User: Which sequence fits this backbone?
């Protein structure tokens, strides 16, 4: 899927956070959103993922204007196509690791629903093997991010919105996450990553520097 921001502006209160920002995120490509802390990387990522409305400009999906998608259409986009790997939220702490991946619950709470083989495969790929019955709230910050990645793999999402995926990871898990994101793009997925990490930036095909004019 081709996701574009065209000339978008976002204001919070009187402050201009993004001012006429344009970026084109292509399928099969990893696009890095880069810039200093506070420059608006997360804000841009959220706008592209329809999590945050824009004040001006457009968001396009495969060339179609989706800026004013209503709630139902936005939800369908999230459910069918998108996966979010964001810092500090998106994981349901009170639910099991398995539920957070499959998003399906069983009548018997301890049982696992959904495609078990795929669940196990996605956990194994993200270094969370045998953790399916644990409470997600007991995972560390880096483990939660990998859990969100396991969910994206399980769902076979078309577009990944990823915020600072390697910030809280050690070297080997950093390599793991970079490799998994590359594999996503290789299979034709659109990967959009906000990052400071130079290794992550090196792995991306396109680098978008947030404009400094505010
Ligand atoms: N909900 C909000 N209310 C007020 N200000 C906000 C809000 N969200 C973001 N901002 C401001 O917008 C600016 C851009 O924030 P954003 O999180 O997009 O930056 P960033 O480039 O992702 O930074 P970092 O590298 O530190 O994650 C910041 O100055 C921030 O204070
Ligand atoms: Mg940020």
Assistant:
């Amino acid at each position: 899927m081709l996701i574009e921001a065209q000339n978008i502006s976002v204001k919070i209160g009187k402050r201009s956070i993004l001012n006429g920002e344009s970026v084109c995120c292509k399928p099969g490509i990893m696009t890095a959103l880069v810039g200093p802390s506070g420059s608006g990387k997360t804000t841009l990522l959220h706008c592209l993922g329809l999590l945050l409305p824009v004040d001006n400009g457009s968001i396009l999906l495969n060339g179609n204007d989706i800026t004013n998608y209503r709630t139902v259409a936005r939800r369908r986009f999230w459910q069918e196509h998108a996966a979010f790997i964001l810092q500090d939220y998106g994981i349901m702490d009170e639910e099991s690791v398995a539920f957070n991946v499959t998003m399906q619950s069983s009548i018997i709470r301890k049982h696992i629903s959904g495609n078990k083989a795929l669940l196990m495969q996605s956990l194994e790929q993200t270094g969370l093997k045998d953790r399916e019955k644990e409470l997600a709230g007991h995972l560390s910050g880096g483990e939660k991010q990998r859990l969100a990645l396991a969910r994206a793999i399980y769902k076979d999402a078309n577009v990944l919105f990823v915020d600072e995926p390697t910030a809280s990871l050690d070297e080997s898990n950093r390599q793991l996450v970079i490799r998994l994101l590359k594999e996503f793009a290789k299979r034709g997925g659109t990967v959009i990553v906000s990052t400071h990490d130079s290794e992550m930036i090196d792995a991306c095909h396109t680098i978008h520097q947030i404009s400094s004019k505010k």
Q: What stands out?
A: The radius of gyration is 17 Å.
